[in-house]
Amino acid sequence: MSALALPWQATTQVGNTTLNIGIFLVFVLVTLGIVIKVSKQNTTAADYYAGGRAFSGRQNGIAITGDYLSAASFLGIAGAIAINGYDGFLYSIGFLVAWLVALLLVAELLRNTGRFTMADVLSFRLRQRPVRTAAAVTTLAVSAFYLLAQMAGAGGLVALLMGITDRGGQSIVIAVVGGIMIVYVLVGGMKGTTWVQIIKAALLIVGAGIMTLWVGTKYGFNMSGLFGDAVQRAQAPLLSGGLQYKNKIDFISLSIAIVLGTAGLPHVLMRFYTVPTSKEARRSVVWAIWLIGIFYLFTLVLGYGAAALVGKDAINAAPGKQNSAAPLLAFHLGGEILLGVISAVAFATILAVVAGLTITASASFAHDIYAQVIKRGSVAPDEEVKIARRAAVVIGILAIIGGIFANGQNIAFLVALAFAIAASANLPTILFSLFWKKFTTRGALFSMYGGLASALTLIIFSPTVSGTATSMFPTANFAWFPLNNPGIITVPLSFFLGWLGSVTSDEHNEAKYAEMEVRSLTGAGAEKAIAH
Amino acid sequence: MSGQNDISDERAARYIEVQNSQEFADLRKKFRGFVFPMTGAFLAWYFLYVLLASYAIDFMATKIWGNITIGLVLGLAQFATTFAITMVYARWADRELDPAAAKLAEHMERGELR
Question: Which residues of A touch B68 (CB under 8 A)?
Answer without folding.
Answer: 223-224, 227
